[in-house]
Amino acid sequence: MKILVLGPGAREHAIVLALLAENTDHEVVCAPGNAGIAASGVETPELAYTDPAAVAAFVAERGFDLVVIGPEAPLVAGVANPLRAAGVPVFGPDQDAAQLEGSKAFAKRVMDAAEVPTGRAARVGSVAEAGNVLDEFGAPYVVKADGLAAGKGVLVTEDRDAALAHVETWAPHGDVLVEEFLDGQEVSLFFFADGHDVLPLSPAQDYKRIFDGDAGPNTGGMGAYSPLPWVADDFVAEITRTVALPTVRQLEAEGTPFVGLLYCGLIVTEKGVRVIEFNARFGDPETQVVLARLESPLSQYLLAAATGKLAEQPEPQFSDEPAVIVVVASEGYPGDVVTGRPIGGLDAAAAVPGVHLVHAATARDADGGWVATGGRVLGVVARGETFGAARERAYEAVGLIELEGGQHRTDIAARVA
């Protein structure tokens, strides 16, 4: 197949690597991609990937058999709409269905209609209104910006004044939700969806906070591991039955079929599993460990979802070997990031058995060396016979990477190793 992957990050690098690993001669293009994806031997043309008209023109010119939309921004911008209208198989929801991620209020309404288990929530438009709801729900306080906020729109705090300040910051940009605090272990579970049916991938857990012990501010994700040995044997079947399928069928009934990747952000509480949030695309960095274990051909499921044929497919198969990813970030992340610093040791890190690297924010300098261009720079992905072995390999490789001021968590997957 001739496949276009849209997006510039580590998630897209992981998708590209999974496609290249298939025993099929795909022609894979990633736009705009990044320097690491280009180093994998994939064409990375410049493209305004969040512009529906620009993407539609590019696809029409190049004649792709499948378009895979990676990040949330082009989905919410409606990039899938003109492609699907032109008859191009697209893995990624239309603009209306993408509101499942683009608007937390929309997602809560859909969950309520589909009777999906989730926490209480109230939409607020002012600090005064928020104060009353915060007092009703009690601490810890959970405040979420309604729209996309690059992982920075959610605040969980015991400090009522801080919660009100978060409302004040985000209220001018749209609605804000105050939610019931849910306590437990978080799980990320992905589903392929074709508008009517779903098929599950393997669960993962990510680490959102910047520092060890889940301290410090939220980030886009500092590491992850898969599978989850501590979830019940029927966990995936339960979430399929109570969350993923009802959500997809509800959207279908509303005339906004969801085609693409349904990301269920879940929490296992004493009262049962609850949905924290939905995303409309592969999560980063969980994708890197889930796809590292996928033994079935990824393209088979992407195309089946895009063409409404998931019911004809068997459930995806995964290796029993665990996978761990440790993210290396620039100094200052997730605040004021220091960029432009050289990166060394990447070849040595990639040479560690069972390890591969995914690039998020790197570039080549004039001499062909690597430099960091953003906050989360790259991820070190490792597989092993046990969690301990995978984790040991990942940290051995991280130790070989040279980046002045670079930072990473040291406790990724420690609880299962």
Question: Topology, please?
Answer:
Elements: E1 2-7, H1 10-20, E2 27-32, H2 35-39, H3 52-62, E3 66-69, H4 72-76, H5 80-85, E4 90-91, H6 99-102, H7 104-114, E5 121-124, H8 127-137, E6 141-145, E7 154-157, H9 160-170, E8 176-179, E9 185-194, E10 198-200, E11 205-206, E12 209-211, E13 215-218, E14 223-226, H10 235-253, E15 259-269, E16 272-279, H11 286-293, H12 298-306, E17 323-329, E18 342-344, H13 346-350, E19 355-359, E20 362-364, E21 370-372, E22 376-383, H14 387-398, E23 402-403
Helix pairs in contact: 1-11, 7-10, 8-9
Detailed description of the structure:
Helices cover 31% and strands 27% of the residues. The protein has 417 residues and is α+β, with helices and mostly antiparallel strands. The strands form 6 sheets. Strands 11-14-17-22-19 form a 5-stranded antiparallel sheet. Strands 2-1-3-4 form a 4-stranded parallel sheet. A 4-stranded antiparallel sheet has the order 5-8-6-7, with helices on both faces. A hairpin with a 3-residue loop joins β9 (185-194) and β10. It is globular, with a radius of gyration of 21 Å. Its cofactor is Mn(2+); Mg(2+). Keywords: ATP-binding, Ligase, Nucleotide-binding, Purine biosynthesis.
Number of DSSP-assigned strands: 23
How widely separated are the two ends? 39 Å
Structural class by sheet pairing and helices: alpha+beta
Which range best describes the helical content: under 10%, 10-25%, 25-40%, 40-55%, 55-70% or over 70%? 25-40%
**Residue ranges: pLDDT <50 for 5 or more in a row?**
none
